[in-house]
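As a representative case, we now present a protein record of this kind.
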Amino acid sequence: MEALKQIFDSIMHAGHMSPFLVVGILILAGFAGDWVGKFFKLPHVTGNILGGIVVGPYCLGLIGGHDQLHDLQPIATFAMSLVAVSIGGHLSYRRIHNSLRRIISISMFEVFLSVITVVVACKLFGMDWPTTLLLGGIAASTAPATTIALIRESRAKGPFVKTLISAVALNNILCILIFVMMRTFVSAYFESGETTGKIDDALLLSGYHLLGALILGLGMGWITKILVSKPKFHDFTTILLAIMLLDGLAAYLTLSPLLVCLFFGVYLGNSSEVAEKQLNTLTPLEPTLYVIFFTLAGVSLHLDELAAVGVAATVYIGARVLGKTLGAAMGGMVGKCSKRMWQNMSYALYPQSGIAIGLVVLLNDDAFVPGEIKSAVGAIILAGVTVAEIIGPFATKAALARSGEANRDRQRLVEFLAEEFIVVDLKALDKWDAIRQLVTFMMRTHRVEHISQDELYQSVVDREKDMSTAMGRGIAIPHGHIEKGPAIQGVMGICRNGIEFDAPDGEPVKLIMLIVTPKDKKDMHLKVLSSLSSMVRNDAIRTRLMAAISPEDAMEVIESEEARDYNYFLE
């Protein structure tokens, strides 16, 4: 009995729970919150956060001690790093080469308007300049983890999703650089009483954060590419080790782990086919990591700060939302986006979490900024994050649904009908020149690594010499074959002036779709040809495609209601 009493006393007076038990509780709470949230049609992210609030210090109090949160910080950092790698991989030139204008325009406008509106609103509210500048620098950030999680939950895919992910990536790069500059100015002011002489220091520090992250991320990407191309190195272990090393080195060099891992993902997404495939290597870990991350975010939310800084936080939140809304809409219009895109983008960028909290931690390490300013900025940001992470996911999920791209991340009959594979205003001397230009475009935008450009061109030309692939009505579908490849690939060219193509009706061709088929996909090849020919024979679809002034315009036609029946989902 004495032994049992000792065991009971040791359990009751244990200092703290094991990290393994804490992680287990987080996972259970996250899944429970998600399960309850489904009854109210809440986003998974919101359900996980609510589960964290329940087990956190403001409800059951099972988790939430400073030591517990500190012990779990590496898991949160790794989850954020994994998200950053994924987002960086989406910045592949092949995917965004013909949508750079709108991506850059939306990112620049929403970032700078967010900073400006928050600074102006907070100053009008009566805050001092150092506080307003710091709040403005942090306000620009958007939560990448929340965005990616909601996109995957909605199974969304299309030009809007591509633009949103790319904008979030550029958003956080700009946010980190702006904050470093703002913090340098504020720190210099309290250190020496002047800031004008510190502009060079601010630029130098921002340059260090950008170039340091760039060199470290690209360097690790280059090493990883070499390792994964050798069979003796295990892909999963290699990518896992690479991200861990990047997180550790970033912390040692006082760089942003998010920025470093983002550039690592950019390298993988723009190098070889083998390297690009590694972006999905850690996919099995993602669901559990995301549940832990968002549940932990719920535990970490400072609900008491909402009451303590209620009015100031309301000003910050309102100004940030206004800046994001106006900035994304104006950027979309300047970038000549479709109305569907800029209207929905205007409220897809509200979530804010990990980056903002990380910048607050970075501010707290500054010895020259007074403690009261650190406390005020921290309290307002944490209150803003609390609201943004509870309400923001609803706005982003609604934007994905209204954009018409939810539930479209499924296999379709013709997968290559995407914006990045369309060229408008094609100018060619004759059909052979048109084919050569489209073959060059194909090699630049697809992973066609088992055949040279000249060999592919000759394959298409040989087929064209046997019989013209012009179908009449201004349509031609030239095609060639390759020995092996992942799928049927293709590009679309729109030539408004028309090209002589030996069509059966003698009309010049204005719409050309080049298809390349692996030899083991011949059965699917016939279905694709039938689907494409049926779609472009539709008078309304064909007329609108030929009048498209941008790849995005052409995609709006391809994704229209009348075209969806031709390019149907296979599941």
User: Anything to note?
Assistant: Strands lie at 422-423, 470-472, 475-476, 479-482, 489-499, 509-518. The first strand starts at residue 422 and ends at 423. Confidence is low (pLDDT under 50) at residues 10-15. The two ends are 63 Å apart (CA to CA).
